[in-house]
Write a structure and sequence with these properties.
With about 190 residues, this protein is α/β, with parallel strands linked by helices. The chain is built from 7 helices and 7 strands. The longest helix is centred in the C-terminal third of the chain and has 12 residues. It binds S-adenosylmethionine.
Length: about 190
């Protein structure tokens, strides 16, 4: 069955922002070499900007239509997978990024547990989400409910608490009126 992202996949990169994701880049502290996982990464819109010679970028997503757009971008590796059941060994990734996707996952708790599992000790994960404590994000949540998207938004402190209870260090970084970032260090 086609889902919302399958339908908008061909135009997704055109309708979304083209910012340089400065806060995300700063918080990720990308190494020169290693493995970056972009979970729920869709078309690779965000992590395609983080490519470098030594950094291998894996984009996992459950929408094949979104992933089919990744193929057009050099050296990004698309992998079809649920965030709740990632087909990677424990302690694989140096960095993980999750942008505007956590609230779309079927289970936030299970996907966070899986993401922590595949993060290397010493690795870092950054989750960017619309901040549900703020009006613009609440309006998005209402719109997604009307569109029957089954989104489930957690506030940044709720995400931080789940991460902390899973045994990793976590902190919240708020910097604009719409999004917040939660950083986890394993
Ligand atoms: C709003 S898009 C964000 C895509 C990308 N992170 C970006 O910012 O451009 C949300 C993505 O999450 C994916 N998604 C939803 N549920 C998922 C799940 N359980 N596991 C993996 N990906 C999922 C969707 O297919 C979609 O590509």
């Amino acid at each position: 069955m086609l889902d919302h992202f399958d339908i908008i996949a061909p135009i997704y990169d055109k309708i979304l922002d083209h910012s340089d994701h400065g806060t995300l880049r700063k918080l990720l502290q990308l190494p020169e070499n290693g493995l970056l996982l972009d979970a729920g990464g869709g078309t690779g819109r965000v992590s395609s900007k983080f490519q470098s010679a030594g950094l291998k970028v894996i984009i996992s997503d459950l929408s094949l239509k979104m992933l089919s757009q990744v193929d057009k971008k050099n050296s990004l590796i698309p992998v079809a997978a649920h965030a709740e059941c990632l087909p990677f060994a424990d302690n694989t990734f140096d960095r993980i990024v999750v942008v505007d996707a956590l609230h779309h996952f079927c289970s936030q708790q299970e996907s966070l547990a899986n993401l922590i599992r595949v993060l290397k000790p010493g690795g870092r994960m950054v989750i960017e989400e619309p901040d549900i404590r703020r009006l613009p994000a609440r309006l998005i949540a209402i719109a997604e409910k009307i569109l029957l998207m089954r989104s489930h938004f957690l506030s940044p402190p709720e995400i931080e608490k789940i991460l902390y209870e899973s045994g990793v260090k976590a902190f919240v970084e708020d910097e604009n009126d719409f999004a917040s970032w939660v950083v986890a260090e394993k």
